[in-house]
Amino acid sequence: MGYESEATRFLRELHASHPELRELRSRNRATWWDRPQDAGLQRERDAARVPQGAYVYFPKPSRNAPQGDDRS
Question: How many distinct helices (H) and strands (E) make up the chain?
Fold first, then answer.
């Protein structure tokens, strides 16, 4: 067998020693993720979406802000 990370080994051993976790994981996934989607609600969300601006990590500079070094 090839390389197997410590995390993968841990999960394999955990599932081997606790087989009930697979069923619990499936049940919890169904609780939060595997739900029917409402197409009308999704259309409303899409229509309300606001486009993201170009300056997402810092504020957009104002028009009056200095543009560089004015020394010549």
Answer: 3, 0
